Amino acid sequence: MESSLWLVPLMIALAASWSSTLVQGQLKNGFYSSSCPKAEAIVRSAVESAFKDDPSIAPGLLRLHFHDCFVQGCDGSVLISGPNAERSAPQNLGIRGFEVIDAAKTQLEASCPGVVSCADILALAARDSVDLSNGPSWAVPTGRRDGRVSSSSQAAVLPSPLDSIAAQRQKFAAKGLDDHDLVTLAGAHTIGQTECRFMSYRLYNFTATGNADPTISQSFLAQLQTLCPRNGNGLKKIPLDRDSHGNFDTSFFKNVKAGNGVLESDQRLWDDANTRRIVENYAGTIRGLFGFRFDFEFSKAMIKMSGVEVKTGKDGEIRKVCSRVN
């Protein structure tokens, strides 16, 4: 297996090259190479500093980018503050990482005023977060501009932990993403945590008879009920990946296959024939090989998602402060 390790960087590079054609003419690799040569290094430094203090910031930044792209496209609108802005919507409860984006933006404005968008900072920070969590890295096409509108009512399009496969499929398809993208991007749950309040309904009163969700394996159900007791603290955090929630790997898919998915929406990936096949491909038993495949496919899916409904050229603006429009 060691003899094939040299293929991994090549595969990731090819993924970036292939996927960049999806946004060709809008975004490009190295967009800031002349206008702000240190842009990516500055973002990386801000993410590394935050990650050193708190590694759990990595899944937070990844989720922040995902939530940005699903509402009005990848335009940094999730960063705008206000009582009626996206970040105040119930669907965005618990999103975090704003201070990391702000720190990077402050440094970028000092180095290259009015050049680097908040939307691009989000895309770069998400990539760096995965890389720091022992996941893949990829070339991020840049050149996004920031949106001027942020509305909490539009956050209803975000995928929910309660979504059926049909609902997930519809929401992803609306963004030009297919089943393969859906399953691959769900694999981001290999890192991070959720709160008991988002999944405890599966443990005690899921059916009309008061039973637990039958798709949860019995051994895992007992563990979850210990972690999230009936009428317990709904804010208590539990890992989304029980085996290695701080490490970006394929154990998430093995958990789903075994009935050990924490969120209902994740476990539902096993219910549908098409999504199940993709889960099985990532949850293979040949150590290493399937991790390489997931790294390759995740990089492609992230590049594809980060090109959703982007604003480029003269659309939007380059915000001076990410939390408010100019």
From TrEMBL:
- Site (Transition state stabilizer): which residue positions? R63
Instruction: List the disulfide bonds in this chain.
Output: C36-C112, C69-C74, C118-C322, C196-C228
| Binding residues for Ca(2+) 1 | D68, V71, G73, D75, S77, E86
**Free-text comment on the cofactor:** Binds 1 heme b (iron(II)-protoporphyrin IX) group per subunit. Binds 2 calcium ions per subunit.
Read off the lineage from the record. Answer: Eukaryota, Viridiplantae, Streptophyta, Embryophyta, Tracheophyta
Q: What is its EC number?
A: 1.11.1.7
Where does the source fall among the domains of life? Eukaryota
Question: Can you tell me which residues bind Ca(2+) 2?
Answer: T190, D241, D249
Tell me which residues make up the Plant heme peroxidase family profile domain: 26-326
Q: Where is the active site?
A: H67
User: Subcellular location, in the record's words?
Assistant: Secreted
UniProt main location, coarse: secreted
Function summary: Removal of H(2)O(2), oxidation of toxic reductants, biosynthesis and degradation of lignin, suberization, auxin catabolism, response to environmental stresses such as wounding, pathogen attack and oxidative stress. These functions might be dependent on each isozyme/isoform in each plant tissue.
UniProt family annotation: Belongs to the peroxidase family. Ascorbate peroxidase subfamily.
Which cofactor does this sequence's record say it needs? heme b; Ca(2+)
Q: What is the species of this protein?
A: Linum trigynum
The reaction(s) catalysed by this protein are: 2 a phenolic donor + H2O2 = 2 a phenolic radical donor + 2 H2O
MF-aspect GO terms:
heme binding; lactoperoxidase activity; metal ion binding
Keyword annotations from UniProtKB, A to Z = Calcium, Disulfide bond, Heme, Hydrogen peroxide, Iron, Metal-binding, Oxidoreductase, Peroxidase, Secreted, Signal
Can you name this protein? Peroxidase
Query: What is any Pfam family matched here?
Result: peroxidase
Sequence positions that bind substrate:
P159
GO-annotated biological processes:
hydrogen peroxide catabolic process; response to oxidative stress
Residues where heme b binds: H189
Signal peptide (UniProt feature, chain positions): 1-25
